[in-house]
Amino acid sequence: MKLEGIKVLDLSMFLPGPHLTMMMADHGAEVVKIEPPQGEPVREVGLRQNGHSVWFRNTHRNKRCITLNLKTAEAREVFMALAREADVIVEAFRPGVVERLGIGYAAVKAVNPRIVYCSISAFGQTGPLAHKPAHDLSVQAEAGLVSVNLGPDDQPAMPGVPSADLAASLMALSGILMALLRRQQTGQGDYLDIAMYDALLAWTPNVMGPPFAEDRAAVVKDERSWGGSSFYGIYATADGRHLTLGGGEHKFVETLLHALQRPDLIAVALQPPGPAHEPVRAFLREAFAQRSLADWCEFLAPLDLAWAPVRDLHEAIHSEHAAARGMRVEQPDGQPHLGLPIKFAAEPGRLDGRLDERGGSTDAVLAKAGYAPEAIAALRERGAVG
């Protein structure tokens, strides 16, 4: 697999860092998850199945877990011993914490100049918000994304996806792989400052027209991406379900409006997004409200048209397409996992559903690092490891 031989120490918790290091583990990296004495919080968050939370299972598979109490000098010495042999370190403490602990980039680089050290935080290591505590929702709010995620009452609604968390995960993965690639030429590692805030803002090039070109906030209901186009929106069906139209290209507009016997609306639907589209939206709202979602699926299926039914998560993960793409994987023990989104033709990743208990690999990892059994026992007795 692509990342075989790469050793990763993961100090992060919750979603961005663990998701990132799981993707690396799926493609062959040796990932050691370092938990505090109380454990990774998501072990206990949300619904559980076969002894583990679903969240934990889908961010921590195929990792070895050790417990270090980094508040003790002995545990910090253990960490530095592991860092000497590591390729990548991922941490997600508040800015300044790893430096205060003595395990920051400068300290690790002094003993391992090849290290690729990635810090993930809400707002970055610098700037006026650097030390502000935040999870995904607050970052989305600061980045302007909650303001455009409006409900039927035109008020900000809770985002359905933790976009700031996952944007940071993918940006961090990209940066780490760039640094590892460059290290092959220079022999030197690097430091990455990944902010959830930065990552999310970088995902907005298609909606930055009003702020950049006209120095104003977007009028959400008039923008193409948020319903300003009649052919890019959500419509209710007669049975209380919904479908989406997801493309306003000329050919799609003609195809649907001819099929619905309203070619007179084609010119209207091809205008720039905004209030001019209301006659088409009104017609489509009325038309789609006349029949059930199942009826519309049957009607629309043969048409060359960008559309989709609004599925719930249960329907989506059990769909024929999710199965065909390997995005729902059943392990031999019956545990379902989200599949691998990165699909190589050669050396594909491998989903190993093994889950380590808290501190389950402490002895094995420390023994591999050269610690004798009696030394490990002494560290455990002093509360440095678990």
Structural features:
6-stranded parallel sheet, single chain, alpha/beta, Rossmann fold, 386 residues, formyl-coa transferase, domain 3, 3-stranded antiparallel sheet
Task: Describe the fold and architecture.
This protein has 2 domains: 7-202 and 324-381, Rossmann fold (3-Layer(aba) Sandwich); 232-305, formyl-coa transferase, domain 3 (2-Layer Sandwich), CATH 3.30.1540. The protein has 386 residues and is α/β, with parallel strands linked by helices. The model has no long low-confidence stretch (mean pLDDT 96). The protein is elongated. The strands form 4 sheets. A 6-stranded parallel beta sheet has the order 5-2-1-6-7-8, sandwiched between helices. Strands 9-10-11 form a 3-stranded antiparallel beta sheet, covered by helices on one side. Strands 3-4 form a two-stranded antiparallel sheet. Strand 12 and strand 13 (336-338) form a beta hairpin. It is built from 17 helices and 13 strands. Helix 1 (16-26) crosses helix 7 (163-186). The chain has helices at residues 16-26, 54-60, 73-83, 97-101, 105-111, 136-142, 163-186, 196-201, 209-213, 250-259, 266-269, 278-288, 293-300, 313-317, 320-324, 362-368, 373-381; strands spanning 7-10, 30-35, 48-49, 52-53, 64-67, 88-91, 116-121, 190-195, 232-236, 242-246, 307-309, 328-330, 336-338. The two termini are 31 Å apart.
